[in-house]
Write a structure and sequence with these properties.
Elements: E1 7-11, E2 20-23, E3 46-52, H1 57-76, H2 86-91, E4 100-101, E5 104-105, E6 108-109, E7 124-126, E8 142-144, H3 153-162, E9 166-171, E10 174-177, H4 179-183, H5 185-190
Parallel strand pairs: 1-3, 4-7
Antiparallel strand pairs: 2-3, 5-6, 7-8, 9-10
Helix pairs in contact: 1-3
Length: 196
């Protein structure tokens, strides 16, 4: 009846939920840190988040991080992995971007090339704060280490999400407010202009 726009499910360890899943018509669904769910009565995209009550709040942010990655790759399409692409720059680690990283991505903070190293003391150059003025990137960098976000997974995700672009307008056909893609993939990817 078009009354539910998102579904969150909580369960215990090993309940088998995907961290994030997307249900909807085959013409719209895409990889969402899991294979798409089709064959439902959903005529619009329905994000489904599978949370476990055991690991804590940081795991919920982690799941949301994967959802962000899948959605932004869809928003930027084949250019998503180009070094000149804003999403690539935002998620870049220092080690894969000529000595200057962005913010990093879910498994890889900007200052490490090893997964899940949210407490790495390594100091690197980062352009993450530059995204606070997106799309008007100035090329400024700051030195960051895990001390920047409190050396925890939760701290990293709060630091990263707080720097996610949220400006008005579009650049090269992509909304400058990336929260639109994260929170409303149906409206941002398949409706123009998006309702948010």
């Amino acid at each position: 009846r078009d009354e539910i726009t998102e579904l969150w499910i909580w369960g215990g360890p090993y309940f088998g939920f995907w961290e994030s899943n997307l249900a909807g018509p085959p013409s719209k669904v895409f990889y969402y840190n899991s294979g798409a769910t089709t064959g439902t009565s959903c005529e619009k995209l329905l994000p489904i988040m599978g949370f476990s009550y055991e690991p804590g709040e940081d795991a919920m942010y982690h799941d949301l991080g994967h959802r962000l990655e899948s959605t932004m790759v869809r928003a930027y399409g084949s250019n998503a992995y180009s070094p000149s692409n804003p999403w690539y720059k935002f998620g870049a680690q220092n080690s894969n971007n000529s000595g200057v990283g962005g913010c990093g991505i879910t498994h890889y903070p900007v200052n490490t090339s090893e997964a899940y190293q949210y407490g790495s003391p390594k100091v690197v150059k980062s352009s993450c704060d530059d995204f606070l003025t997106y799309p008007n990137l100035q090329g400024t960098t700051t030195d960051v280490s895990c001390q920047t976000w409190g050396c925890s997974q939760l701290g990293f995700f709060k630091w990263m999400f707080n720097r996610m672009p949220r400006a008005e307008g579009q650049t090269d056909g992509v909304y400058n407010n990336w929260w639109k893609y994260l929170l409303d993939p149906e409206g941002s990817l398949f409706t123009s202009p998006a309702p948010i």
